[in-house]
Every structure is written in structure tokens, then in C-alpha cells.
Amino acid sequence: LADTENPSSGSGLIVLGMGKFGAAELNYSSDIDIILLFDLSRSMTVSTDDPTSLFVRLARQVIRVLQERTGDGYVFRVDLRLRPDPGSTPLAIPVETAFNYYEAYGQNWERAAFIKARPVAGDIEAGRDFLNELAPFIWRKYMDFAAIQDVHSIKRQIHAHKGFGDIAVRGHNVKLGRGGIREIEFFVQTQQLIAGGRRESLRRIRTVDALAALREDGWISAEAEKAMRDAYWYLRDVEHRIQMVADEQSHTLPEDDEGLERIARMMGNASANEFAARLEPVMRSVEGHYAALFEKAPQLTGKGGNLVFTGDEDDPATLETLSNMGFNKPSQIISTVKGWHYGRLHAVRTSQARELLTELTPSLIESFAEVSNSDESFFAFDRFLSGLPAGIQFFAILKSNPKLIRLLTLILGSAPRLAEIITRKPHVFDGLIDPSFSASIPERAELAQRLDRALERADLYEAKLDIARQFAAEQKFLIGIRLLTGTVNGRQAGIAFTDLAEILLQAILDQVVKEFARRHGHVAGGRIAILGMGRLGSRDLTAGSDLDLIFLYDHDAEWDESDGEKPLAAQQYFFRLVQRLITAMSAPTAEGILYELDFRLRPSGNAGPLATQIDAFSRYQAKEAWVWESQALIRARPIAGDPEFLGEIRKALDAIVAIPRDAASVTREIADMRGTLDAEKPPENEFDVKRAPGGLGDIEFISQWLALIKPEQAALLDDRSTLSAIRELGPDHLDAGEIETLVGSWELFTAMLQIQRVCLEGDLSGIAADKGLGLVLSEQLGLPDIDTISRELIDRQKAVRGIFERCIARVPKKKSSRD
């Protein structure tokens, strides 16, 4: 001790009285709010490596002595929840830690709380020094209206509590209810916060003293000061008497006749009616002055009830509100919101961000309460926030555009795949902020220009690849959102996903060729191109599609080697170049991958080389290809590479497609292939529209069958997509009703598949029970509910399978997962 006769002197132990204790306004049965700090720079010697533990033990002993109940009663109930971030800090805190907290994460309600702070015990001088040093935090020179809204939000949240909505007498809370003591305190404190940074005369601790200062400084009228002062003392008298009845920290008037009569008599009234006639005008006067101060302030309360997220313990009424709204984990939600308030995420490190989020919180909670998996959606939003480097812009945009809150809820509640994307890569959400988002999907040329401009910002090869990955993630996300919101349909989404893939393939191919040439030079006359197969070829890509590719090349026959620093034989050159391209496209990095690639459709499948010379490719397809390879080639399309070479490849493809085939053999092969797929890859259920009998697979096989048995006409088609083949080649083999059935079913199945791939990772077993996804499907497919969708899918699948069996062959019935 610095002074054994005066132990507190120089001890560095600071006991701050807060709230009514600090302002010398305690009630008959008040708790005492205190904050315990310690300053090791003071005179007392602390000989320990862990001073925090020492002072925490001291704090515990002090609290125990104060509030332990014995035969003689207790001294005071103690509340330490006003200390910095009480859920994660010790009972006694070093002053340096406190300063760091308030400087970085201090909240506006804490500024209001410190208006009444004063050192009440311990090292009084150290306590005064602490408050003096903290003054710039408490008394900001400029408080914008958003900061005042943040303070006021506590009161607005409290208003939603049951019984606080209207002024009454029976059961009314004279502290927190409308026209109560808290409104008088907030009326004073918010004006002190606004002007106290510039006017030290307003920095009064006691409520009535501050009212007088506000009147003297011209902030309020003499009439307002008198009305609020008289109301304050009257309501405090009522509050004292409520607490005298049972020595409980209560502020609520009795609801029964006997209890209310007792309070009336204690207040000197002859009856409860006389007491009510005196009390109600007082509260209406307070409400009127308070409302005038905040008459334009927006409501922050939830329509479901109380939403209070301050203090250490969970507010019981807020727990009840969240439960009534459908949340299963209300306590965890309260804890999460408190974490936002304490700046535990980068997005809420600034006071402005926290103020904006405070105002948004009720709307967010109400929006999440509307989806079937409310808790999971809310916590997904928290994970999304944790990935944001900053939140001010994002919160401001949500505030100005409430539709984005609904969209965000739709994603997090109904589209787990998109939700996972935005929680891992929050930057993709930036695209929704772009004013052009609400318009149609950008034209392909415009999208290519955007990618080129983005790539120009980087000099290094790896940096360019990361930019391409970021671009791809954002654009895939935006196409998915447009599909969910009905801006595009399934077919349009397929084209958009395909255009994006082609643009990226061309851009990455250009970068790889340029980088590869730095070391290995060029092969004379060397040209390379990419053939898009499967859904990429037919422009039907989905959000989760692999890219089926074939790489073709050509070069001058007399040149067998590249001319670079490290020359390579021509065949090896293109093989290594393709390997480099594959790595650039599919190697995982911090930004993820661009696409998974599939090369099984190349000549000789997995046994063949990754890159094939064009003449060898043409010979193989003309003389050696299996029927399934010829089927695949129907949808093949040159999509990236040397423009002149792409034209030559298209001519070669036309020639291959035009080769006559034995119709009976083709039909038999396709029938056998369909039967094998049914047996080896059965569908999960009717929602598995790609593999289901009578699903997309059957429609695609029918279109490919038509092209293979009518090769001359098929070779003339500019567009060899599934629908084009059915419409252009079908009339000789299908009647008008069958064509209509196939086209309509393809469109429904495609829309279904596109939405599934945007929303889900793959498992379709629980799709019928997913209410959120069911609502999305119903809205986008134009069908009333998931049961109707199921019936429509089954009926269409039966019809399509019937057409398949009439045209090609009856497929033997084999056991599926549904059997």
C-alpha cells in the first residue's frame, strides 16, 4: 500500500458509480451499477505477474461482502454489466484495456451511461483522471443524427414490450413505459450528447441539474424544464413506493385493485381513481416532450415485441419475442447481436457501422423470421458479416433499399449453395449494389470488356488468374440471383452461364498462351482451339456444371519444334500448354477454382492425349468413334481459340455430322445406353429431372437420335441444341403434340434443374420438405406448391418416356431407388 493509514490512496483501484448510483439518484431498492478498473502506474506496488487475477479476486470479495445475504440482510445488490464487453472481460479491467475498448468499439449507449459516471470508492484521484482522459469519448464535438438514433433505439426497442405500448396505470412500468422516467432521462442525455462536446456547462451528472443547464443554455424552454422536473420527482416518488412494498427492484404498478389502492394511499391520494387522475397527465406530459424531440425517428422495434440487446443477461421479453417469431435459439441470437454491438467483427468496428446495423437489426430479424429455417439463416448472415472487411457501405445500402434485405433473406434461407458462396466470398454481393443489376443480363460483348478491364489492373500472371476467379464467382452469383428473382428463366440462365464460361475460357487461354510463350516460344503456324461439349456445347450450363472440353491444335507440318528459350517438340508443346491451361482453370487457390474440367469425351477417352491434332481428330471421328461419341459430337461447338481455326473446325464438324449411319444400329445402341444409365445411375426421386426416366436425359437422347438418323439435315443446322434438333428434325418422326410435349417438358425440367443447381449442392432427397426452396420453385415454375410440382414432373416424365419408347425402344423396367 502507498499509505497504510489510507489504503485507497494511490492504490490504483478505481470504483466508478454508474447510473442512478453515480448521479446520487438511487431508489429505495436499487441495485448499484459499478465499474471496477485498476491503474498499475499508481503508487501501490503489485508484486505479481498476473495483476488482473489479483484485482479480480479483490473484486469478487468486495461484491460478496456487499450482496451476501446473512441474518442481518445484505448491503446492496451489485451490477457490473456496464463494464466494457461484459460477456468477455474480467470483473476488474486495466485502464489501458478500457481506453483501447472505448476508443475502438465504444457504443453510443455507453457514452450516455458515462454521463452519470463518478468515482465513488478506491483511488478517487485515479478515477477522476480516468474520466478526464475518457472525456473525448463521452463528449464528442460532433454527434450526427445516426448516433443519436442509436442511443434512442434502446428506448424504442423497450417500447415494444408488452404493456409499454400505451400509457396506462394498472400494470404500467413507470421507469421504462411510455411517459416514464427513462424518457425523461433520455430526453436529457441525448441533448447532452449532442451539445455537451462543445458546451461544458451541459455536462451535469444529475437529471434535474442537467434539465436546468439545458434551459439556461436555450436548448429547452422554461415550461419544458419545469414540466419534466416536476414529472421526474413525482414519478420517482411513485417508484420509491412501489419498491417499498416488498423491497424488490420493481418499477411496475400493481394490476389488482388492492395493490393499486395501496400505492395510491402511499402517494397521499384518497383512492386509486384519484391517483390515476394525477398520474396519467404527468406521463402524457413527459411523452409529449419526449416525442417532440424524436418525432421523426424511425421505429427500430420488431412487430413481434421486445427487441433489446443491451446488458449482460438476456432480456426475458426479448427471448419471448424471438421464440414467438419462430426462432429456436433465441439466446444465441441475442448473444450474436450483442457481439455486433461490441464490434467483434471487422464489419462493425466503426461506430457508424454499429449505428446503422442497430437500426437495421429489427428489420433483419423480422425478415429471417419469415423463412422456414430462421435460425440457420440468421447465423449464415452472421458468417456473411464476419467475412466483410467493412460494413458502412453495405449497411447504408440495405437501409436505403429494403428489397435487398428480402433478397438476402431469400438467399440465406432458400439457397444454401448461394449462401455458402456469399459467406465465403462476401465481395460477390457487391454486384447487387451496382445500379445496373436490376436490368437484364449484360450482353456477351459487354461482359468480355468488363473482364478485360479487370485483367488489365494486374501485371502478374497469378494476379490475373485470381481476378478471373473473382469475376467468375461474382457473375455466377448474379446469374443465380436473377434466376431466383425471376429476372431470367431457366433457358436464359443456361445461355448466361455458357457465355460466361466461354468468355473466361478465351481470356484464360490468351493469358496461358502468352505466359507459356515467354519460356517456350511458339510453334510455326501453331494454333489451338477449345471444343465445347455436352451442356457447354448446347448452351445449357448450370451453376454447378463441369466443362466438357476437347482441345485441338494444328501447326506447319515442316516445323516440329518451338522457337523459345526452352524449345519443345510440337506435340509436347501443345500437350504442356493444355496442362498449363487446365491448372489455370481448375487448380484450387484462395479464390477457389474457375471450373471443374472433364476430358472424357476426347478421342479414346481417358486413354487418349489431352490435345489432338485436327486431322487426327477428324479421322478418328469419321472412322473409329463409337455411337456415344457421335452422340456427344452432335452438341459440339468450337468456343475459344484462334478465330480462323475455329471456323475450320466448324466445317470439319459439319462434315463429320453429315456422315451417314445405319439407323437401326444407332437406334439399338441408344436404347441399350439408356437402359444401362437407368440401371447404373437411378434417380433419387422425380425432382432428379436430369436422370429420371422421361427426364432431360431422354429428351437429349431423342434429339441426338434424330440428328444421327438424319445426318444431312443435322449438318445444316446452325444451332445444334437439344430444342433446335427436336423442332427442326422432329416433324418426320414426331407428331405436333409430341414435339410440344418434349419442348414444354424440356423447359420445365431445365428451369427445375437450374434452380436446383443454384440453390443446392446436389442432395435432392429432402427437396419436398424444404419450405424455402419450395416457395422459390413454386414462384419461378408458376405452380402453386411443391405437391403440384411433383405431380406435374411425374406426369411429364411418363409422357416423355412414352415418346422415347415409341421412337427408340421400350426400356426394360429395372429397380430404382423409388422401388
Describe, in plain words, how this protein is organized in 3D:
It is a single chain. Strands 1, 2, 3, 4 and 5 form a 5-stranded mixed β-sheet that branches. Strands 6, 7, 8, 9 and 10 form a 5-stranded mixed β-sheet that branches. The longest helix has 31 residues, at 490-520. It contains 34 helices and 10 strands. It is mainly alpha-helical and 819 residues long. Residues 157-164, 296-302 and 814-819 have low confidence and may be disordered. The N and C termini lie far apart (84 Å).
Summarize the structure.
By secondary structure, the protein is mainly alpha-helical.
Which geometry do the CA atoms define?
A: elongated
- Describe the sheet with the most strands: 5 strands, mixed
Portion of residues in helices? Answer: 55-70%
Structure summary, number of beta strands: 10
Overall pLDDT metric: 85
- Low-confidence stretches are 157-164, 296-302, 814-819
Q: Return Rg in Å.
A: 37 Å
Q: Which percent range describes the beta-strand content?
A: 5-15%
- DSSP summary: helix tally: 34
Structural class from helices and strands?
Answer: mainly alpha
Task: Compute the separation of the termini in Å.
Answer: 84 Å
